[in-house]
Design a protein that fits this description.
By secondary structure, the chain is of the alpha/beta class. It contains 16 helices and twelve strands. Bound molecules: zinc ion.
């Protein structure tokens, strides 16, 4: 099916990867879907704190193919709550020294914001971090909010509720409050190179999104589903087409391949078919002329959106930008080289801090096994 698509180089800017045992499966999926380069976006992990070691281990095996956007060290949110931004500003240097290409922040996803002691993004705690990020021009993939339906008891899809993503009970941050915080940050730091994941969840408010893109020339969005995004786009394909033409330099291709395995229990492979469906959805939308049908039953978190979608049939030069060039402009034409000694150092630090963090959270058992495995790999003792 993917042969139906144009033969344009693809760099997927939004892939999840949470364990070295998934390496073979992921590489097979990338090959089968002709994804030449991928960006691993690292989210925090309850038992292991960080998935950055896993991603850099993958990058060590495929140094020309794999970019890594490292997650911030969430232990700082607990230990240096008021001054976490100073800590994060320094931690960015650690990420860079290990060989990361950017930063991933999932801290704006409402359930994360509730679970972790995350201060206001536009408050004093984070301020030094934004100063640093703007100054060094390091790109950040930032997940802020979720589909607007998730705050509405009448509209929240059943599958989202099952994931614990109904946010309307008053115990979660409101999406407009969070948009406000983030826009305040951009007004103070217009040089910040930011890629808002999932179209900033504004696929239903394109005029508003256009206003932000006009105001902030370094702001970007990625096309990672949220199926609701493509459902919204399909309602008005002509104006969506014009939007994509106008903002062709600001939109990046992404799929969320690996997200399902990440949310599942350890031991689950990244599924070939589920991944392919994500590729088919985004690429059909970008490339097809007219309607296309997608059977979403096997699509994880795709709910009951089975049915017709509209393609916007973009010209090749625009596809080129969305599929890879916009990402490469932000993250570099080649992934940055890794530094084994720095990675070992960070894994050793994680091995010390994981037991402390897990002891502080009742019922939580820390897991240092991957950190250990990655140390062994970089010391030449294991694969
Ligand atoms: Zn994701």
């Amino acid at each position: 099916m993917t042969d139906l698509f144009s033969d344009i180089p693809v760099a997927d800017c939004h892939i999840h990867y949470g364990n070295p045992m998934l390496m073979k499966g992921l590489m097979n999926i990338l090959d089968k879907n002709r994804i030449g380069k991928c960006n691993i976006v690292c989210t925090p992990h309850e038992k292991r704190l960080s998935l950055v070691p896993d991603a850099l281990h993958l990058k060590a095996h495929y140094p020309e193919k794999v970019y890594v956007f490292g997650g911030l060290d969430i232990s700082a949110l607990f230990m240096y709550h008021e001054t976490c931004g100073t800590y994060f500003a320094n931690y960015v240097d650690t990420l860079l020294a290990m060989g990361c290409d950017g930063v991933k922040m999932i801290e704006g996803k409402p359930d994360m914001r509730k679970r972790l002691p995350i201060p206001a993004f536009d408050g004093p705690a984070y301020a030094p971090y934004w100063v640093k990020m703007e100054a060094i021009g390091l790109p950040v993939v930032f997940h802020v909010n979720d589909p607007e339906e998730f705050w509405d008891v009448k509209q929240v899809p059943e599958w989202a509720r099952e994931q614990g993503w109904y946010y309307g009970d008053g115990s979660y941050i409101n999406n407009e409050v969070q948009y406000n915080e983030v826009i305040n940050v951009l007004r103070r730091h217009p040089g910040l190179k930011v890629i808002f994941a999932h179209f900033f969840f504004l696929s239903n408010q394109l005029e508003r999104l256009a206003g932000y893109l006009d105001e902030f020339p370094n702001m970007h969005v990625d096309l990672t589903p949220g199926i609701e995004m493509f459902h919204n786009f399909s309602k008005k394909p002509q104006s969506v087409h014009d939007f994509f033409i106008k903002y062709q330099d600001r939109i990046l291709y992404g799929t969320d391949i690996g997200a399902k395995a990440l949310l599942a229990e350890v031991g689950e492979e990244i599924e070939l078919e589920e991944s392919k469906m994500r590729v088919d959805l985004v690429r059909s939308f970008l490339e097809n002329e007219g309607g296309f049908r997608l059977n979403t039953e096997k699509g994880y978190l795709f709910g009951k959106f089975s049915g017709w979608f509209q393609g916007i049939h973009l010209p090749k030069e625009v596809l080129n930008k969305i599929y890879s060039r916009n990402f490469e402009k932000l993250a570099g034409k080649q992934p940055r080289p890794i530094n084994a000694a720095k990675i070992i150092q960070e894994c050793q630090r994680l091995m010390e801090i994981i037991p402390i963090m897990s002891a502080a959270q009742p019922g939580q058992i820390g897991d240092t096994s991957v950190a250990k495995q990655v140390i062994n790999y970089f010391e030449g003792k294991a694969n």
